[in-house]
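Hello forum,

I keep getting stuck at the same step: I have a sequence, I want structure tokens, and every attempt I make locally crashes halfway through. Rather than fight my setup again tonight, could one of you with a working pipeline run this one for me? It's a single chain of 163 residues.
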Amino acid sequence: MNVWNVIRGLSIRQIFRLARILILQPLLIYPTLKATRQTIKVCDLLYQKKHHKNGKANAFRHGLWNLLICQRTFRVTKSREKSIIWAKKITDLHEKLAPNDPLETAMDLHNNEIGRAIFYAMIDNSEEEMIAVLKENTKNAKKIIEIDSILDHKKDLVYLSED
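Reply #2:
Ran it on my machine without issues. Output:
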């Protein structure tokens, strides 16, 4: 993922919205970018291009992205809650700036939350242990076909289609 290509595709309003968030937390920019790059690298290695679709690989990518943002920014914030708030703010903004249809957006937001929850519960564990739990959750991800069914899977990753 080329960050500059993404930024070039934004409207002026979207750029100002992103800039406002980043200006308020400049020390969190680098760890967030590093987490984003690592997420893509890991997902490309594990799933090739399947993580760009709406299957289990995509669910894993969203969970991993949030988990890694939390973990990387925690080194700066020293606060579990601040890192989780930051990851939510950044990944929610991503969903607003690159919108999908409502079901895909709901799926992504839900899977983002699962990644943050794993970080919260396993903060004292290693990155490898957190990722192992996320991989296990991915194996057990639940297929959904409507937004309301997400509520039936509050602790599970969800996906829309087979990889």
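The radius of gyration is 15 Å. If your local run keeps crashing, start a new thread with the error log.
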